Amino acid sequence: MPHERTEEFSFKNFFIPLTSLKAVHFIVIIGLVVYFNSLFNGFVWDDFGYILNYPPLHSLNLQVLFGQNDFNQPDSYYRPLSALYFAILYTLVGNHALLYHLLLIIVCIINAVLVYFLFKKFFSILPSFFAGIVFLIHPLNAESVDYIAQTNSPLSFLFGMIALLIGCKKESYRKRDYFLISICLLISLLTKESGILFFILLFLYKYLYNRKESLQIFFTGAATVVLYLLLRMATIGIAIKPAVMIPVLQTTIVEKFISIPKIFAYYIVNLFYPNTISIDQLWTVKEITVPNFYLPLIVTLLFFGVLIGVGIYLRQSMYRKAYLFFLVWLAIGGVLLLPFLPLDMTVADRWFYFPMVGLLGIIGIFYQMLITKSSRLKSSISVVLIIIVLLSVRTIIRNADFHDAFVLYLHDSKISDNYDIEDNLAGEYYAMGNYREALTHYKKSVELFPYEVNYYNLAYCYSQLGEKQQAIDAYAQALRRKHYSSIPQKHLSITYTQYALTLLEVREYQKAKRIITVGLSEYPDSSDLKTELILAQGKLSAQSK
Questions:
Q1: I need a surface site. Which of 74, 164, 382, 488 has the fewest CB within 10 A?
Q2: Cβ neighbours of residue 23 under 8 Å, at least 6 residues apart?
Q3: Sign, Cα dihedral of 365, 380, 301, 355
């Protein structure tokens, strides 16, 4: 009998040769490992206002979901499919966070796989694989995976990427391809309006690599955008955005310009050293200083200088078209980060989800050129693996910050000073019954950015502590501030009612009557104010006897 030769098992066989099937398996496994601890997180931040405490999402009423609601606003955005997604989930599992997190992780893993296949059209398998992993596990993208209320960004990205991959195929299009591209783009747009960026990329890709079909793809995308606009106009229309309580939107045009270097530097620095990431960043640059302007300007200029230099170097290279494609990807994503747009904060980690692909594409070109020399291959792989491990550990740590609202606000308040985190953290302390600690953070909130709501919260906290005079002073301050909400009245009804109630408690009946009268001029149907007015008049009548 001839001796049968058995192949010795080797761990190396798992990785070499690296095939697309293996690459996809590794991306899925790494994604599940890195984001496993986020499965046990609860709801945080806007998850309450947009999902748990928002009745329109608690039933599958399509008229409500596609009509005007918090997801569909005439003055800002139209995201009915995001509303439908959350409504379906809430109908299935209610306020149990596990399935929300699991589905979001799955969506983001699929996105990373799609990014891998996109890069495979430009590079070899190794840089494409590494880029897909980095996109998935980078700490800047952790917010997109951990933050349930912002599932719309990864969902919109998912369908936009499908449209782009269909459009990037080498063979000629069939009618079915145009139909699928149009459907996916429309879903992407109806989930989040930034889906229009994939239309730009589709046209650019065709213009660079198959100019004959660029006109057809332009008309396909344009027709889809027109359909989106018609749906929006037919349901909620378009209106001018009112004033909002975002500090960066209250700045002058000069202050917006001098904020740009620090905004870009935030993403650049945290891309390579993700140490200062946090939610809800509302800082502004009011004056030109070394830390707020000159240092960020140097970082930004160096970054863009490198990009320009690489572009010049590659102008005769086989990668010049790929470089231009990813540079435009980065650029159109970067434009959406500028403070001239009606953004609801200064910077946000999840906003870099789209432009990161463009930057990874540019880095992929570097890596592709590097590994063409086999002598550098092993050392480059070792460096990349170390980077992936470090980024994974940082992301796992960041996932833990999203464990619950209190943990998140407490952690991020130490990184980013802003009124909203302080107000939210105070609310968590208040819910625990720790009014004294809540008071400290309400005070800090009004110091950072005073407006009616945080002054009202401060006043109510004072009242709960029995410090009535301080509460009265805070209520008076609340009525001197804007409320920055969409109601037409000058102030909130509850500010009048609680202010008047506190005045009645300290027997300032005449002053209470004046406040109630002003409140009734704005809210003539308020039963609470009418009741308080009767009480105040009764007390004044008793005093006069």
A1: 488
A2: 116, 125, 128, 129, 132
A3: positive
pLDDT tens track for 85-110: 999 999 999 899 999 999 999 999 99
pTM: 0.89
User: Distance of alpha carbon 35 from its chain centroid, rounded?
Assistant: 18
Confidence of residue 247 (pLDDT cuts 50, 70, 90): confident
Q: In the numeric block, which tokens belong to residue 27?
A: 């991306």
Judged against a pLDDT cut of 60, whether residue 3 lies above it is answered with no
Residue 414 has pLDDT above 80, yes or no: yes
Q: For tokens 């500010």, what's the residue? A: 495
pLDDT computed for residue 408 by the predictor: 94
Tell me the C-alpha distance between 307 and 305, whole Å: 5
DSSP state of 212: G
Q: Give 356-359's long-range contacts (Cβ < 8 A, gap of 24+).
A: 356/135, 356/138, 356/140, 356/141, 356/271, 357/115, 357/118, 357/135, 357/326, 357/329, 357/333, 358/326, 358/327, 358/328, 358/329, 358/330, 358/331, 358/333, 359/271, 359/326, 359/330
Task: To the nearest 10°, report the CA torsion of 145, 147, 153, 158.
Answer: 30
For residue 1, the model assigns a pLDDT of 44
Q: Give the CA-trace dihedral at 135, 140, 145, 150, to 10 degrees.
A: -120
Domain limits of the chain? 416-544
| Structure confidence at residue 424 as a pLDDT band (50, 70, 90) | very high
Alpha-carbon distance of 497 to 512, in angstroms, equals 10
User: What is the C-alpha separation between 350 and 362, in angstroms, rounded?
Assistant: 20
What single letter denotes the amino acid at residue 381? I
